[in-house]
What we know:
The protein is an alpha+beta fold. It has helices spanning 3-12, 68-82; strands at residues 18-20, 35-40, 48-49, 55-65, 90-102, 109-119. Strands 1, 2, 3, 4, 5 and 6 form a six-stranded mixed β-sheet that branches. The radius of gyration is 15 Å and the shape is elongated.
Amino acid sequence: MTGDAEILTLISNTVSNTYLNKLPQTVKLDEATPKVLIKNITHLNTPTKDNTGREEFVYRIEVIGSLYANVSSVSEQIKNLMVPHSGTYIYLVTYENGYYDTNETAEIHRIIKDYRAFIKY
């Protein structure tokens, strides 16, 4: 198991419709049940390190769906799971920032939050 798998397991055990790195083409985003997309957005060739030398990875978690209340609720639920998470491969997770995005007709809502994870080695 890696840090990516640990984050995926942590979230998917609580929230259904969770995907890593990309959404399958068959997934419909305009449904009331939110979909969760987890992406490791750290450049793998140049990982950054904290003051003690642990590698840091940034995970972008997007919650997407047609009902803002559901999207917001799931996004907050994930934040409560993630911060402060400590597990087998991850020393600590911190919340970095977040923002709300929508399409012009507000049929699909998206809340995007970034988390910094410190990896154990």
